[in-house]
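Appendix B: complex inputs.
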Amino acid sequence: MDRRVALSLLILVSGCIHVYQSIRTRSLDPHTPVSVTTPVKAHLVDGSTVVFLSGVTVDSQAVRGNGNRYSLTLRDSSALTSIPLDSVVGMESFEQATNAASSFVVSVLATGVLAVGAGLAAIAIFGSCPTVYADSAGTARLQAEGFSYSIAPIFESRDVDRLRIVTAADGSVRLEVRNEALETHYLNHLELLAVTHAPNETAFVEELNRLVVVADQRSLTSALDRRGRNVARTLAAEDGHVYSTDARTMRQAGITDLEDWIDLSAHAPPGVDSVAIVLRLRNSLLNTTLLYDVMLGDPGARSLDWVGKDLKQVGPALAVAQWYQQRMGMNVAVSDGRQYRVVTHLRDTGPIAWKDVAIVVPVVTPGSVRVRLSFPMDNWRVDRVAVAGRFRRVSPVVIPLAEVREGTTLNPTALASMRDADGRYLRTSPGQRFTAVFRPDAGPAQERTFFLAAQGYYVEWMRSHWLRDPRADHVFVPSDTALLEALGRWRMSQDSLEALFAATRIPMR
Amino acid sequence: MISSVLVFAACYHGPSIYKFEPVQGPAGIDADLRLRSKTVVQGELLEVQDSSLLVLSDSGRVVSVPVSAIQRGRFGTLGDLIDDGVNPESALAQLRNFSRFPRGLTPELRARLLAAYGQTEVDAAR
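Resulting structure:
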């Protein structure tokens, strides 16, 4: 990159609104007058087919429109503008449908659904998408949480998470996917990604789900938060000592002041134009408070329609998504010596599993890099930050899902549902789990790191107390007012909320 | 010049009526059928019957394929709609709309079609 050129400010939105479109077919009665503007096909008594791409008008005598008639074998065709009704066997029109339920095929697990007691359902707050575990010496160790915050079909997304696993004795990779929340999960696609690298290299996922291998990781030379606190030691090692926003900063939150930041400095090797910032982090429960209390809980029963209907339309969904994308997550900015310019954005990753990511940033001043991580106050828990002087982007080996097991029983339908990113889903209910089995080829002599790519969405169950005690007379409106409200509630209930969150995991069947 | 660009994409999945060939033309949807016997039948979907598919194969033969013999059926841009172990009922209902003859072939039309392709009987795939 030419350092003399001013940095362009590019905010890349790493997600997208997923619009699932299908084609709805409707039979037209040739004896009923009608006007249709979408494509129509008419099937005639002699076996020929007439295609009207711009639609038709049907009256008592004929079907009229600009059409092409094709013979039985399709070898001959001719243009026409009308066909007599008595030559028509049948007609259908084709319309575009978006996010139509008929375009989805859903399979379910055979394991019975857990009956959730009213008491637990009333208070359960544990949530946020499927959790993924791997066996570690007989203990299930949390590896990842998939597609966090994909709270409606239109927000379906793909998450890529680094795994810390070893293969089983037979060389397979086995991951247990659980539904531990009062949610219905719709899993579209699971696949394993493998990256081979040297022993002195480490593989990470970037903010746009690409994979990168880094080397030469070094500690920061400086890390100061918004209040000027030196947090370099807190961020130096993966040790459970994590960064959170200072309480004094949170007390001064206001409608025009909702941000916290950490300013980082690090050496950059000579001659490089970019370095990789390596982070180990997860979200706090601020987001959960925003989702459960403000977005879903406050409007009460209105939220049912909001999720079930409003969020199926591109307009309302885009408004929520744009606000969320701009407001939440984490902006990564680089200083050019005079000011910080945002170079990329990291989406929220979820409050349950730690995520290891690498973010490539430009080196503007030779020999050093100054980066600002900015985010809504207390939105993150950051365990470690380092800077890697060397990195390379890599293309992984893709390992498709080989088996889905419920206990020892194979479930081929579930496997078919999650083998490709398509219109088929596996639906899981609270308390259900399955084992996803992958069979990578025998490992090379070099190191290998695995990543799980998971795509899907989930639907939050409405809690009974939300329905009983709504606090708002309208559905959620994306705004800084809503975030400030969530921040206030989170600040007052942090400790008890964290304990309750952990305690209300739905037990597995 | 510093420019600020917010990019937000709507990612469309699934067929569009403006591009989907079975809507834009008279032919039925492309079918790629892998049978359990390792036989492959590829061609145009002519008709969806109760338990079999009638296909005009790429080699110009009219072939009947029992649904029960299909290990995997891929159809145009709709993807894999028939899969081993998965109930094909909903898939067949969807596919019928995109076959060349969604209302089926009368015996007379079937005979004329076969004659046009030099056949007196439908080939049976196994």
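Residues 107-116 of chain B form the longest helix (10 residues).
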